[in-house]
Amino acid sequence: MEGKIKMADGSSFTAITGFDGDVHRAFAGTGGGPSVQTQRTLKNAIHCSGIGLHSGLHVAMTLKPAESDSGIVFRRVDLPGSPEIPALWTHAIETPLCTTIVTGDVKIATIEHLLSAFAGLEIDNCLIEIDGPEVPAMDGSSAPFVFLIECAGIVEQRAPRRGFRILEAVEESEPHRSCLVKPAETFEMRFEIEFDSRAIGRQVFDSEIDPAVYKRDVSRARTFGFLQEVEALRQHGLARGGSLENAVVIDGDQIMNEGGLRYTDEFVRHKALDCIGDLYLAGGPMIGRFEGIKAGHALTLRLLKSLFAREGAVVREPLLAPVAALQAESA
After folding, report:
1. Which cofactors are required for activity (predicted)?
2. Last residue of a domain, one of 162, 184, 211
């Protein structure tokens, strides 16, 4: 069975029911030890469509359940052979204003908002079938993707969930920009931005990130840009699908969007949203603290490359179930 729902921004999605996924709770360790989290995927396939932020092309996309340990994989169904690209830093390239993955001559751009939603909701495995070169922008945030994932449903799988624990601090920097990761017991993020426009100014976001925090404090933050830069961006093949429907637009010191902002510091929260998606290119969740100052997609990608190139800086390990979840389950 399937049902089509129209979104306020003109995009749409279709929920397709009928995937018989097994649901498994976190399983106990040997000898009564701590419970380990299990991997998660979608319960049902779900379809959406919309305009690419930079290409301006109409794109259709279907999110599908995937087997344990398959990760997040994109499939270009519009191309001969339907080539697949895993969402991993080893397939990512530096591109302006978005995150792009490639295999051979095949590319998929602007994947960061969708990846961010997967990271925020702790989705480990998903197959994304897409008929164009760019993920649809939807409303410019990850909230529509969060909504899609929740409509599709989430199931736990048998395989243990693994994450990347930061053991040593690693930093990347360039003039006026920097980012680093360092050890912490949970996933934490601090992001700082500063713009001359009084509409933005200096903003700081600092928080531990879990699904509840992500949905409430991060997911609704939209991408943004300055009106005076739009024409130059379009001449370079960027922002061709950008509008007040999928971005916050600033003209001097004024917000042009009729409804204003969703958060008083929406701009820095969107930077955090982007970064959460970019860090998920590691191939799983991170246990550590990220700190960024004016960092963009390219600098975050360089940080991931440096992290995995440095011996002893990171280790992949099973993730223990949160104490609160265990207490609730045993109550």
Report:
1. Zn(2+)
2. 162
210 is in an annotated binding site: no
Is residue 24 annotated as a catalytic residue, yes or no?
no
Domain that holds residue 60: 2-162
Whether residue 113 is annotated as binding a ligand: the answer is: yes
Q: How many structural domains compose the chain?
A: 2
**Overall pTM > 0.70:** yes
Q: What is the distance, to the nearest Å, from the Cα of residue 15 to the centroid of all Cα atoms in its chain?
A: 21
Same structural domain for residues 37 and 167?
Answer: no
Q: How many CB atoms lie within 10 A of CB 80?
A: 6
Whose CA is closest to 180, among 73, 303, 287, 92?
A: 303
Interval 82-118: pLDDT, tens: 999 999 999 999 988 899 999 999 999 999 999 999 9
- Whether residue 130 contacts residue 74, with contact meaning beta carbons closer than 8 Å, is answered with yes
CA separation for the pair 150, 121 (Å, rounded): 9
Check whether residue 186 and residue 291 sit in a common domain: yes
